[in-house]
Structure formats: structure tokens, C-alpha cells
Design brief:
The complex is a heterodimer of chains A (about 210) and B (about 170). Chain A is an alpha+beta fold and about 210 residues long. Chain A folds into two domains: about 1-70 and about 85-105, no CATH class; about 115-205, Roll (Nuclear Transport Factor 2, Chain: A), CATH 3.10.450. In chain A, about 45% of the residues lie in helices and about 25% in strands. Chain A contains six helices and seven strands. In chain A, strands 1, 2, 3, 4, 5, 6 and 7 form a seven-stranded antiparallel beta sheet that branches. Chain B has about 170 residues and is α/β, with parallel strands linked by helices. In chain B, about 25% of the residues lie in helices and about 30% in strands. Chain B has one helix at about 1-45, and strands at about 50, 65-70, 80, 85-95, 105-110, 120, 135, 140, 145-155, 160-170. Chain B has a five-stranded mixed barrel with strand order 2-4-5-10-9. Chain B has a two-stranded antiparallel ribbon with strand order 7-8. Chain B is globular and about 65 Å long. The chains are: A alpha+beta (about 210), B alpha/beta (about 170). The interface between A and B is medium-sized, with 23 and 22 residues.
Chain lengths: ~210, ~170
């Protein structure tokens, strides 16, 4: 009887282990995706880096643990060379981010849109708990109206940048925001924050 | 009498010929219309079958079918679809079941009601255990199953995203 219980336990443990290892097979494709993201940030003139890649750059162990959790496998089951696929682009982008974070000066946006900026600030505080908002401004003095081919407005936008410091990031960063109002025959709908957070470029804290 | 009979015959002949000509013209127009409609339908509806590494080489908004295995990303930022209330999840479609080979990003609608060609909404903190995929026939499949994914190639994101509208098994 004891032997039977032992056999069942061993079988279940082996199956569980095999299943967990099977799920780890998303590592290669995720590193391939990460490499594309890093490459894309390197090619960007401002070196805008997604939140996800910022996490990989500055807290790789946190990134790794989160990926392991998604894949249902242990971080210790990752091969020791798990970052090999991204290494070249990782090192290049990290050097640029470190340099920008120490030297690049954020340029104040030329306009202030208090109503829209208040919406943006609320959204950022919700998205990045503990983040400090240091500056904010708009690129547009007034709404930028988009019209269809018949000349009828479809919507209008205000676009700007916010300067903030997010916990876990060693530098300040600027992120772009967009507030949109859709045109509904005779008037515009209420303001919607269309593009809040997700990526930014590093600058020296003011 | 003879003259009137000949005239009647001639008139009837003219009418018949005219009817014949009209029907022939209609037939020609009809044939052209059918040909054009078929060409348009085949372009818009029948997707081209391509390999994973060929998807992003296609033109913007082209519909394609591609086979592979769905994999979760380390982080899947969700957006809301412009055309429905479904959430859109960005997953990866990879060539081999081992998770290696070429891959693309696929955007799949997620709902809470087990709908065909959708995935179930993912919780905030998710693992592979939370992934439930439904094919066009409503069958639930997993990330272990090889799938035929059909959708439109969107080239706004680099290199591209396949906006999925149909999920099948080969």
C-alpha cells in the first residue's frame, strides 16, 4: 500500500513538473518579442521605452519573476543565459537611457491647458501609484480639429507631455498624453484621455 | 396580303432579334458583373495562407490565415475594440509548439461569455491556466493546440499586428 502511495505521489510530482516546464517554452518567444521592442526603442529618435522594457532594463529580476509567473514555471528553471537573445540591444539601450537620465533636459511645453491637464494628472496617478508629477504642458494652444473628406469634424485633440518620476526607475521621464473629444453632430463629447502612459523617454530630473 | 404577311414576318423577326440582342447584352453585362463581384469577394473574403514569418511582409489591412501556437506575453496591455466592447489582448503566435521559431503579435478580442473566435477575459494577474480560446465552431482549445488564425495585417505598429477575427484548428 505504501509503495502504491509513493508511486502515485512520484507520478503526480513528475507530471506537475513536466507541465510546468512545458509552459516555460514561452521564454524564447518572449525574449524575441523583448528584443524587437528594445530594437524599436533604439531606432526611435527620442529613445522612447515602453514600461515593460523599462522594467527589463532596470529591474530584470522583477521582469523575469513576472514572466515566470505568467508561464507557471519557476524563475530558477530559466537557463543562466536567458538574456543572451536581448543582450546586445539591452546593453546599448541601457547605456543610452543612463546617459539621457543624467544629461537630457526636458523642454517645457509651450502651452497650458488646465482642464485637460487635470484629467491627465488623475489618470497618471491611477496608472502609476506613487509616481511624482513634476511638470506638465501642452503642445497645442487650442484644439486640433480633424475633419472627414466632406469637411465635417470627426473629433478634436489636445496633445502634450508630462514629466514624472515613477517608483523603480532611477531617472525622471517624459511621457506623451492625448485628450480627445468625439464630434457628435452639433457638439463635442466630453474629454477622454486616449493615450495615458505606457512609454516614455528618460531625462534629467529638474 | 402577301406583302402584309411578309411585313408581319419581318416585324416579328425584328422583335425577336431585338429581344435576342437585348438578352445577349444583359447576359454579357451580367457575366461581367458576376466576374467583378467574384473578384472583389475573393480579394476581400478569401484570406491568403501565409507562414508566420511572411505575415508582416503583407500589405496593410490584408487578410491572411496563418498557423501556429498562441503564447502569452510577459505583459499583455489590453485595449478596447473600436467596433465592439470587447477587450483586445496582444498575444504572440509562434511557429513551433516548443515556443521557438518565427513569431508575430496577434490582437484577439476577449469577452466574458465564451464566444467563438475570442478568448475569455484574462484576470489582472494571469497565467497559462487562465487562457481559454474558442474556435469558430465554439470549441474550447488551449495553447498546446496548433491553430489557424485569420485576420487583418495592421502595419501601424512595427513590425505589424494581426488583428484576429477567426480562430480554427487545422
Amino acid at each position: 500500500m505504501k509503495k502504491l502511495i509513493l508511486l502515485i505521489t512520484l507520478t503526480l510530482t513528475t507530471l506537475g513538473f513536466a507541465n510546468a516546464q512545458g509552459a516555460c517554452n514561452a521564454l524564447d518567444v518572449n525574449m524575441g518579442f523583448a528584443n524587437n521592442e528594445l530594437k524599436s526603442s533604439l531606432a526611435d529618435p527620442f529613445h522612447v521605452i515602453s514600461d515593460d522594457m523599462q522594467k527589463l532594463l532596470f529591474t530584470p529580476d522583477v521582469w523575469k519573476a513576472e514572466l515566470a509567473k505568467v508561464m507557471n514555471c519557476s524563475p530558477s528553471s530559466f537557463p543562466s543565459n536567458w538574456m543572451d537573445r536581448v543582450r546586445v540591444n539591452y546593453d546599448q539601450l541601457k547605456t543610452i537611457a543612463d546617459n539621457d537620465g543624467k544629461t537630457k533636459i526636458w523642454k517645457d511645453r509651450p502651452f497650458q491647458r488646465p482642464t485637460e491637464q487635470a484629467i491627465v494628472k488623475t489618470k497618471y496617478i491611477a496608472k502609476y501609484p506613487g509616481a511624482k508629477i513634476l511638470k506638465i504642458g501642452s503642445n497645442y494652444k487650442d484644439w486640433n480639429v480633424f475633419k472627414n473628406s466632406l469637411g465635417i469634424p470627426t473629433n478634436r485633440y489636445v496633445r502634450g507631455e508630462i514629466l514624472l518620476q515613477i517608483p523603480g526607475r532611477p531617472y525622471c521621464q517624459a511621457q506623451e498624453w492625448v485628450i480627445k473629444q468625439a464630434y457628435k453632430g452639433g457638439g463635442y463629447s466630453s474629454s477622454v484621455a486616449e493615450n495615458v502612459g505606457g512609454a516614455g523617454y528618460f531625462v534629467k530630473c529638474p | 396580303m402577301l406583302v402584309s404577311e411578309v411585313r408581319l414576318f419581318y416585324d416579328n423577326f425584328q422583335i425577336r432579334q431585338s429581344n435576342f440582342k437585348m438578352s445577349l447584352t444583359v447576359k454579357i453585362y451580367l457575366a461581367i458583373a458576376i466576374a467583378i463581384a467574384t473578384a472583389i469577394c475573393s480579394c476581400g473574403i478569401t484570406p491568403a495562407t501565409v507562414a508566420v514569418h511572411e505575415v508582416c511582409r503583407q500589405t496593410d489591412r490584408k487578410r491572411v490565415s496563418v498557423e501556429g501556437y498562441l503564447r502569452l506575453r510577459q505583459s499583455s496591455e489590453q485595449e478596447t475594440s473600436d467596433t465592439s466592447n470587447a477587450k483586445l489582448y496582444n498575444l504572440l503566435l509562434v511557429e513551433k509548439s516548443s515556443g521557438t521559431g518565427a513569431f508575430i503579435t496577434v490582437s484577439i478580442p476577449g469577452t466574458g461569455s465564451h464566444e467563438p473566435n475570442r478568448i475569455d477575459e484574462l484576470p489582472v494577474s494571469y497565467t497559462y491556466n487562465d487562457v481559454r480560446i474558442y474556435t469558430d465552431s465554439g470549441k474550447q482549445v488551449t495553447t498546446d493546440d496548433r491553430l489557424v488564425i485569420t485576420g487583418s495585417v495592421m502595419k501601424e505598429s512595427k513590425p505589424c499586428v494581426l488583428q484576429v477575427d477567426k480562430i480554427d484548428t487545422p
